[in-house]
Amino acid sequence: MGEEHVAVLYGGRSLERDVSLLTGQRVSRALQSGGYRVSEIDVDESLVRRLAELRPDVAFIALHGKGGEDGTVQELLEILDIPYIGSGVRASIQAMDKVLTKHILEAEGIPTPPFHAFSDAAFRELGAKDTLEIIARELGLPIVVKPAAQGSALGINFAAEARDLPRAMVSALSFDRKVLLEKHVVGRELAISLLERPGEGLQILPVVEATPKSHYAFYDFESRYTPGETDFTAPADLDAETASRVEDVARRTFEVLGCEGFGRVDVILDEEGTPWVLELNTIPGLTETSLMPLAAEAAGLSFEELVEAVTRTAFLAGARHRHGRRA
User: Fold this and answer.
1) Catalytic, out of 193, 279, 290, 312
2) 152 among known catalytic residues
3) Cα-Cα-Cα-Cα dihedral of 308, 68, 150, 213, to 10°?
4) Distance from the Cα of residue 247 to its chain's centroid
């Protein structure tokens, strides 16, 4: 292991750059402590040239948001024949697009909150705004309005009344050209982290429950990344039957989206015990306040051991890649 060379890709130009920097720097330190030779790359237009020069054994993708989680950098790494952590191109595209994810989940019978979605063109050219009152009646209020392809809860708004929808739509469309309108499901916010380990298959780490402090309406960007603003319980207090149901829906989500390596499924558990899948993160945050490290700790894994396990998934994927293009 000691001679293996890992390129940590972080930073970039997405709106999640600051979170990516935190993840990448923390991962880099963990890899170095584990004996890897590490090259840190703050991703810009020189990425391909630098990777071609460095020829690392593996790329550890610590990029969040567009460019990092949507299949873009994965495609480049495949062209360069450099193994990388996490999911392949197709799965990354599917998971990054919340609307596409929800259509796939619905088709597979996996519970996800009822929704509608529009592109900005539908509003500019087709009069989609005239459907908002219909949607408010159909989904019920409040409605959660989200950019289709953003992470870290960026751009999410709550429309408590139908008259609030246009403002929420404009706000969400400032982050992405497609927007998701989703029924607000009241319940417990759970995160289920999954990790593929050599010889052990896909392991589900202990479920983490996030409970934002009272002045936050939901688990938003500030409550995610401001220490002390959210209470975390790992493992979450779930009875055996509920825990099994939550873990099963997370595993099914991971599998139907074609994911590999590792990931995190975010779920709302309602009062009836139904786990509603919100999304799957193919490159979960690994900062001091991120959920996957908390799940790993609850499973008895240190952060260094978690990073080591994630890194090994790239070598597994590289072996698969040599026998055919990754999904």
Assistant:
1) 279
2) yes
3) 30
4) 17
> What are φ and ψ of residue 93, in 5° steps?
-60, -45
CATH number of the domain at 5-85, please? 3.40.50.20
Q: Which residue has the tokens 């550890």?
A: 60
pLDDT-derived band at 176, boundaries 50, 70, 90: confident
CATH superfamily entry for domain 114-183: ATP-grasp fold, A domain (3.30.1490.20)
Confidence of residue 216 (pLDDT cuts 50, 70, 90): very low
Decide: 259 and 325 in contact? Cβ < 8 Å: no
Which residue is catalytic, options 10, 16, 36, 151?
16
Annotated catalytic residue, options 14, 20, 152, 223: 152
Let me know if 225 is a catalytic residue.
yes
Are 173 and 40 within 8 A, CB to CB?
no
Number of Cβ within a 10 Å radius of residue 64: 32
Active site residue 279: yes
pTM of the model: 0.91
Catalytic residue among 26, 70, 225, 247: 225
Q: Is 285 annotated as catalytic?
A: yes
Domain boundaries, the chain: 5-85, 95-99+186-321, 114-183
266: annotated active-site residue: yes
Tell me which CATH code domain 95-99+186-321 carries: 3.30.470.20
Name the active-site residue from 97, 189, 196, 266.
266
